[in-house]
Design goal:
Layout: H1 2-14, H2 19-37, E1 65-70, E2 74-79, E3 86-88, E4 91-92, H3 96-108, E5 117-126, E6 136-146, E7 149-158, E8 161-172
Antiparallel strand pairs: 1-2, 2-6, 3-4, 5-8, 6-7, 7-8
The chain binds decanoyl-CoA.
Decanoyl-CoA (MFK) is lined by residues 52, 102-103, 106-107, 110, 118-121, 147-149, 169, 171, 177.
Pfam family, one: 4HBT
InterPro entries: HotDog_dom_sf (IPR029069), THEM4/THEM5_acyl-CoA_thioest (IPR052365), Thioestr_dom (IPR006683)
EC number: 3.1.2.2
Length: 178
């Protein structure tokens, strides 16, 4: 379902459909919304965002990224941004790139039985355009850990070209901290 929804968002962004089709799809979407509404659950029971083996954890906000290598210091894999994430002129929107890094670095910050943490800051350097509709490689790694502070870095590449780099601080939560 999430794969189809991701594709739907890409299609909506790309299409200029005739009015009849817009009306038809609007009715279908309203029907889907109504059917799902009766199955809503509390945050801690939802599965979207919890399906760690699916691209982007089945979290629609996040680009569909796949982790292929993971240990307690480093993660690597690939991501493909679609038309939904287009900024302009073939380049990914500058706001979509931190989404990937926040999720990826935040996920790595948890690995190895570490307690939950939250992003204190996330700095992005946009080194060159990040293209949509291309397979891109990413890497994330620990720079250092000091008490509750975890400093991580990441990069997205299109083949040999660096598209963006990230530098983030994640702070481990104290018991009871939201
Ligand atoms: C499998 C599932 C994977 C899921 C991955 C998803 C990851 C998504 C992660 C997120 O996006 S979380 C949402 C975005 N972040 C937030 O909403 C965080 C909001 N901010 C806070 O909750 C608090 O500010 C925070 C927990 C980050 C820190 O507050 P605390 O009161 O716990 O920490 P404190 O102020 O005691 O600072 C602890 C240390 O961190 C340092 N620090 C905190 N914020 C800093 C900052 N912004 N810049 C530099 N240093 C900072 C602080 O100086 C101090 O350093 P020292 O120990 O050396 O003195």
């Amino acid at each position: 379902m999430v794969d189809q929804l991701r594709m739907f968002l890409d299609r909506v962004a790309a299409a200029v459909p005739p009015p009849d089709l817009v009306n038809e799809i609007t009715k279908l979407a309203a029907e889907f919304n109504a059917r799902l509404q009766s199955h809503e659950v509390a945050e801690y029971n939802q599965v979207a965002g919890q399906l760690i083996d699916l691209p982007g954890r089945a979290q629609l906000l996040t680009p569909a990224y796949t982790v292929e290598e993971l240990d307690d210091q480093r993660a690597a894999g690939h991501v493909r941004f679609g038309r939904h994430h287009l900024g302009n002129n073939g380049a990914v929107h500058g706001g979509a790139i931190p989404l990937l890094f926040d999720d990826l670095l935040g996920r790595l910050a948890l690995v190895g039985g570490r307690p939950k943490s939250r992003t204190a800051y996330l700095h992005i350097d946009y080194r060159s355009i990040t293209p949509i509709d291309e397979d891109l490689q990413f890497e994330a790694w620990f720079e250092r850990e000091e008490g509750r502070k975890r400093v991580l870095r990441g990069a997205i590449r299109h083949n040999e070209r660096v598209c963006a780099e990230a530098h983030g601080l994640f702070v481990a939560l104290r018991p009871g901290q939201p």
